[in-house]
Amino acid sequence: MSGNKPKAVVLLSGGLDSATVLAIAREQGYQTYALSVSYGQRHVAELAAARRVAKRLHAADHRLMEVNLAAVGGSALTDPSIAVPESANAQTASGIPITYVPARNTLFLSLALGWAEVLGAKDLFIGVNAVDYSGYPDCRPEFIRAFETLARLATKAGVEGARFRIHAPLIEASKADIILRGIALGVDFGETVSCYQADVEGRACGRCDSCHLRRSGFANAGLPDPTRYR
User: Fold this and answer.
1) Is residue 203 situated within a structural domain?
2) DSSP secondary-structure letter at 137?
């Protein structure tokens, strides 16, 4: 029964990776609580996708929280004055992609941690990946380990002895491996949205880095790409 299952908060963007992570958490026996964040991204089609995925994968609850990272700026995903790259991956002077959103995963995990503490959950899941797209500093194993330490130090539950665990089951997986894992767990990738600049109907541009990674992932997995392109 679901009442006997441990609870886990799963960050769910509505994209391919996070949908697979939600399915993995469910397979591992957790009662899943999906958390999506409206952060000022260019489009909200991925949030509609997150609702579809949460319903299909039977999340116990699905919350939408808001953080205005558009006010921070500095990213092609939140600042309309910065173009989304459509060829080779555009980088800053430090080599970090221009699609990096400052402090995004730190803020997302902080929201997930707060909800987990209220729920009495000790497990958080996030779909970061350091193989196909290793340019983001908050997608590295070091970041996950550091946030785990922070979670134990910065919460009432942690001070009282709770040992929070941050699960990043896809961190070393290729996009093809992620797709094959998701398919095996019943994920309908046709319901997900990965494009950085999808239209209001969720149709992908087919040109941005995320679209290139997704398309090549299906090709390498030997599966047809269910993405709707405009």
Assistant:
1) no
2) G
d(CA 144, CA 147): 5
Q: At 83, is the pLDDT very low, low, confident or very high (cuts 50, 70, 90)?
A: very high
Count of structural domains within the chain: 1
The strands making up 123-125's β-sheet, listed across from edge to edge, are 61-66, 31-38, 7-11, 123-125, 165-167
Q: Rounded distance, CA 93 to CA 98, Å? A: 10
Paired tokens of 18: 């996070």
Residue 224 domain flag: no
Span 203-227, pLDDT tens digits: 999 999 999 999 999 999 999 999 9
For the domain that residue 96 is a member of, what is the CATH number? Answer: 3.40.50.620
In a domain, residue 33? The reply is: yes
Asked if the model's pLDDT at residue 80 lies above 50, the reply is: yes
Strands 61-66 and 31-38: parallel
Q: HEC profile for 143-209?
A: HHHHHHHHHHHCCHHHHCCCCCEEECCCCCCCHHHHHHHHHHCCCCHHHCCCCCCCCCCCCECCCCH
Determine the pLDDT at residue 93: 47
The per-residue pLDDT of the chain, averaged, comes to 93
